[in-house]
Specification:
CATH architecture of the largest domain: 3-Layer(aba) Sandwich
Structural class: alpha/beta
Number of domains: 3
Radius of gyration: 34 Å
Shape: globular
Bound molecules: iron/sulfur cluster
Helix content: 40-55%
Number of helices: 28
Largest sheet: 7 strands, mixed
Strand order of the largest sheet: 1-19-20-18-21-22-23
Amino acid sequence: YDFGRLAFEYAYRYQVPGFILTDGYIGQLREKYRMPESIRPRPQADSRRLRSSIYVRESVLTAHNWKLFRRFERMRRDASLQQLAIHEYETEAKGVPADILILSYGIFSRVGFGVVERARREGLSVGQASLKLLSPFPEEQLRMLARRHKALYVLEGSCGQLHEKVREAVGQVPLVGLTAYPGGDLPCEAEVVENLRRFCEQLSPEYLGWKTEALALEDKVRRLQGRIAPNRGAAYEQIPLDEATYPYEIQGNRKARHPRSNPIMTDVPFSYCAGCGETTAVASIGKVLARLPQFDKVLYSPVGCSIFLYDYFKEEFVRNVQVPHGRSSAAASASKRVEPDKLHISVQGDGDALDIGFSELIHTMERGENITIVLFNNGTYGMTGGQVSSSTPLGEYSATTQQGRDPKRHGSPLDLAQFIAQPGVGYFRRALLGSQEEIQAFENALANALYHQMAGHGVSIVEVFTACPGRQKPSQAFVEAMAQKGVKAKGKVSASLQYSARVLPPGADALNVQRGTDVDDPYGELEKIHREGETAGRERGIPVEERYTRGLEILSRRYGLQRATEHPPASLPDLRVYLGGLGGQGVQSLAEALVKALSAVYANFTNSPWYEPEVTKALTTSSLTFTNREQVNPILQPGEVDLVVAMKKRIVEERLQMIRPEGLLVYDCEEGKLPEEEAAYRLVQVAASSTARKTIGDLRCANAVLFGVLAQLLEGVDLEVAREIVRQSFPAPQINLQALEAGIALMESTTPVG
Ligand code: SF4
């Protein structure tokens, strides 16, 4: 949770992506979490354009990449990040640094807490530094740690990659030991301590002498290296760090101007090929949007020739968001949910929408997102060279189907109309862009689509069949057919209008496939919706601070029992509990109930669940640690568990090595009693399952019976709290309350053996 917050904070601050790396153990682990009392609202984006790549003009890409690099360098020097990078634990005793410093991350850091404690108990001088930041990697801090401690020791959940990185940072001279597990099992504390003991034997006075000399030499070389200025070319500082690259891309590269009568469009000339249908379509989109000044408008440009939209609209009138290939409808859906009063229009090609982003498109339709999609379908990947796309007609030429599209080799075209029966599709129209009437029909369809978006009818789609004369080549048969009609179709441009109709899926009625109704005056209807919104007070979203406070309230209501005691008694020693049974027996519910019951007694707990993949009849266990300390290893160590609860005999047979000498085994003796004489531990055998089945009438309550047994057994559990937990957290509370009482009574009449 903390990392999530921090990743967003730094991603916004430095305009870079943040990645959170974790592992399966941490992912499953549950523990007490103290929410910060408040959070700072994130800064708002300062540009109405969101453009992230494709800076390919001369020197601009270089300058852009240097800008990103310089931002990263600035991150490297950020004192707040450096502070976060390493968490130190027991790194010195009475002001003297530990001899060996363990470096670890993820669940291995938690194991490391146990290793440090055990090693210190056994007389080894060991501390730990948990790495919280892998990029920027805290090289400088590691170099300092390598000087402060005699040696480093990497404890990692990978095959040595961290060891290599540490080695790279600290140089070849300081010794760096290693315990590496590649993911899967975790090392036992005792095993690591044994390895540390052998490692310590290498830290001779001779080694320490070499180390001092070598580090002094390294300092000298580093000072020398610092004087050698790198050559980074002229573009290095061309773009100030906080500026967008976009204006540099435009400046000087688009000298020619193309004054337009449309006030919301720029004078950047269209870069489409002669005869390209997108020229007409983009001008039409501009005309429709210019008639809707009352709305904020956002266009989404994914990869493909439609991406150039970002150049053609003035940002004060139309925002533009550049989107990775295929992700346009997903991005627009997300924005629409937080900005429902704006018009969100995703403009995509067929390669983008029907190939690369088809999954996004189909699920946008499934969810019925209130956005509008304008799909330019020209049956090819125009921008990248005219390759076959999902909608290339059978028999048609493309760069990758030079003999025509063959259904056996290249598949058959995908027809979007086959999918529009989804209830989430509120409006669907198809358009051609040849005659004035067709262009008008497209504009009318777009205005209607926007009306359906704002009326909340689900996704509205206008599929425009255009030509790509820049890439497509009419087949000979097509040219001849046109010639017979008296149309000269040899030249690309002259053929393009007729050619666009070829992309239409077969069937006389293909152009008339529709969904949703047209309104007579979509602009008037949109104005009404706008006015209604103004009058009702549009939903502006809840301020972030208020949202956070509300969230805290909900969480504390929901988990009130866990947060009930702020000052638990500190006298109780740690309690380690291992629960096991089969899937379906309620092992994890029992673990959760115990956590709640003991949260009033201990300041902290960890609950590490584990299960085989099958839902039922497979082994499932839960490792619980209750403690009043801040840092513990949540992974239970063999032979050190205070209490094992076995809901199946298999747990006794396979996992009994977990229990410590004189620990307690609570066993549901449904499968027969265990011999009591030779037990090396204390034993409580209770007929939990048979009580649940015979007395309560439902075998599924066996975990509640056991909860009653444990509530009676464990020091500090308040029976009233246990009853409240069953009322609040168990399904069918009445019957489970009976089971709990039966368990309490069972324990009252049972005496532990041994
Ligand atoms: S490649 Fe095709 S789609 Fe792209 S601009 Fe040229 S004609 Fe239009």
